[in-house]
Design goal:
Shape: globular
Number of strands: 16
CATH class of the largest domain: Alpha Beta
Helix content: 25-40%
Structural class: alpha/beta
Distance between the termini: 40 Å
Number of domains: 2
Number of helices: 15
Bound molecules: iron/sulfur cluster
CATH topology of the largest domain: Rossmann fold
CATH architecture of the largest domain: 3-Layer(aba) Sandwich
CATH superfamily of the largest domain: LarA, N-terminal domain
Amino acid sequence: MAKAAVSIIKVSDVYESLQESLRLSDGLAGLNVNDGILIKPNIVSWDFELPFPPYGVVTTSSVISALVRILAEHGFNNLTIGEGSLPKLRTTGHEVYEALGYKKLQERYGVKLVDFNQEEFVQVDYGDGFKLDIAKKALEADKIINVPVLKTHSQAKVSLGIKNLKGCLSKKSKQYCHGLGNEELSLTFPRIIDKLPVALTIIDGLYTLEKGPGPTGKAFKKDLLIASRDPFACDLVGAAILGYNAKEVPHLTNYAKRHGSSLELSDYEVTGESIADHQNFVEHDFEWAEDNSGPTGFQKRGITGLAIRKYDSSLCTGCSVQFNPMLILISSAFKGVPFPNVEVVCGKQQLASTGFDNTVLFGKCACHLNKNNPNIKKAITLWGCPPDLEKMAEELGKEGLECDYNEYVRFRHYLFDRYKGKEGFNLSDWSVK
Ligand code: SF4
């Protein structure tokens, strides 16, 4: 079988550029007009309470609406948009769809909107003991068009098409994917795709994001679309554009091993723009002190008496999204004097060490794991899966760590405001005209 091409298109007008992208990648070739097609965007999270900059975080509605329009013009009339955002969301997926303008696509083209979190999941057996609960609507689709964002990921390095399918899992299976040993992140989520009929991947690169996947990372304008009927090839090219050699991205090497795919870009056909012309390294990871005592920013501020252990891949997205806000909260408790000898641990494998007077256990997993840890003198348990920020501030306050929740609110405004008036950054990309 001839290899599917990967197209790279510089975006001018999204609709026209997407048409070109599909033409160069022969993107519609694997679809039949009568197919039930599921479009899977990336809506990792959303927030109606505090400002939320979606740049490089959430698939643009510009790309989704252009895609729906093109499909409708080609006679496809059985379209569904489905996603399973973070269950932590205090809103339902349907409210988010409304905010993203998808309801207009529903009215205009009859697109069905599905919030996987409110629907049925089916346990799928991969045949070797590996099982995942996958959204029934995703399994039942004739074809899936996967529309991830061109972004980095602090744990997975890059978060592209293969990773985006994690949104098709139940909360339990999402957490399971952040396991240990053979259940480690880079071994688990690349397998989701094996049971899903992904016919086309379109990487939305209108914006890209460093230190993703959430809005604490910084976004850049990129104006690219990368598309292919080969999901792996598409991710390989996306990773290269973000400056990552697939050989250094464990989930891509694991996928390649399992499928016998080449990791060499030269083995794939790239059409349109060249990779070299758009390749810029985008940082994925947060800087940490060499002795693992916390983010380097804390050191620079002169914060002492505190050791925050760096998260690992066993920290699920729910806790990851709360991790940075937790850092903001804790730093707000710094009043120029050393912290009272505090260690913070999180995830499914971090054990508290000796020599600390206080141990903060961030999240239910860390609380359970360290329940009988003899190293702990005094535990400050932040229960929750993931822990709630306001409750977190309350619990820390009880132990004399006076956090200012408003500091977090200010941080959220800062994240949002840094794109205000910035050339090329348009919130209208998350609406449907
Ligand atoms: S507490 Fe955090 S790490 Fe543990 S399962 Fe919940 S989200 Fe995942």
